[in-house]
Write a structure and sequence with these properties.
about 45% helix, globular, 4-stranded parallel sheet, alpha/beta, 3-stranded parallel sheet
């Protein structure tokens, strides 16, 4: 089945590097008990946790374009970055291996969560070539060394940024915006929607903002930072929207111009807690409610913090019109 993004821009779809990895579209499910408890019976959950096998989550959408580009360029390995428990690094290694690519990852330390040890054990099974680094500067220096030492030559080592959030990777969530717009239309939902998600490297948020606009949706994207605010800003989201849009227009002149998209985006700080991957009481409550009322398994670093924002908005009356 042709995806909505490809139907809207068929020439662009042909010209973009792409490798099928994800099981799409992911379901947009009603959560009636959860919604009723919050006073928003129209609550829907986008099941990107089921986006791929053997490993789902939001990274698979970006990797379809990034690993597709690596293959198109004749690369034999990829290099990426993240914290020790990074979902992005693990997803990159899993899907790179499926495509016959080696995976190097430069990783930084992070607070220990129940998922970090499992992630590192999985890397051990995969044979991911992990290199620790103590700072951002050291991560960049380490990457230079890895490229210089790559047996196939530096040009055959494809670099993927933190979270896969390059302009090209962001197109994975431009496509997701088209997917969500089509699903909302199929459900006959006429009221504008608010879409809550965690905001880290910003590619998912920026892609959704751009994709929903191009798909003709009036939905507002609510980004909840899970990194300190000096690293995640509304301005940076807007900049990435523009870069992804330019990536599209450079490949297909039929892609229409875009206005300033920041009015379609809400940046909601206040749910980070004391730092990246640090557990918050609000996040723990959100995780428990999601489990008890919707049978959803969420983690404390990303989704629980975005969900905590949604719950707070519902309780404060901010979502009163979304019934």
């Amino acid at each position: 089945m042709t995806r909505p993004f490809a139907r809207r821009f068929p020439q662009l779809a042909v010209r973009l590097p792409w490798q099928a990895l994800a099981d799409l579209p992911t379901a947009l499910e009603s959560a009636p008990r959860f919604g009723a408890a919050l006073g928003i019976p129209s609550l829907l959950v986008k099941r990107d946790d089921l986006s791929g096998q053997p490993y789902g989550g939001n990274k698979v959408r970006k990797l379809e374009y990034l690993l597709g580009d690596a293959l198109a360029r004749g690369c034999d390995a990829v290099l990426t970055f993240g914290a020790a428990g990074s979902n992005h690094v693990l997803a990159t290694s899993i899907y790179a291996r499926q495509l016959g690519l080696d995976c190097h990852a430069v990783i930084s330390d992070q607070v220990q969560t129940p998922w970090v040890a499992d992630t590192l054990r999985w890397h051990l099974q995969l044979g991911t070539q992990l290199t620790p680094a103590a700072s951002y500067t050291q991560m960049l220096e380490t990457a230079v060394t890895i490229r210089a030492q790559h047996p196939g030559g530096a040009e055959r080592l494809y670099e993927i940024p933190w979270g896969g959030s390059s302009p090209l990777g962001t197109l994975g969530f431009v496509a997701a915006g088209f997917e969500i717009a089509a699903q909302l239309a199929d459900l006959g939902l006429e009221e504008p929607a608010r879409i809550y998600l965690a905001c880290g490297t910003m590619g998912s948020v920026a892609g959704l903002v751009l994709g929903l606009y191009l798909a003709g949706s009036d939905a507002t994207v609510v980004g909840v930072p899970i990194l300190p605010q000096e690293r995640v800003t509304a301005l940076a989201v807007g900049t990435l929207c523009k870069a992804a849009h330019q990536e599209m227009q450079q490949r297909d002149v039929s892609v229409p111009p875009c206005p300033d998209l920041l009015p379609r985006f809400e940046f909601r700080s206040g749910y980070l807690g004391t730092g990246y991957a640090e557990v918050t009481p609000e996040g723990l409550e959100a995780m428990q409610l999601a489990s008890d009322l919707a049978g959803l398994k969420v983690e404390t670093t990303y989704t629980a913090k975005a969900l905590a924002c949604l719950i707070a908005d519902a309780r404060s009356g901010r979502l009163a019109g979304y019934v």
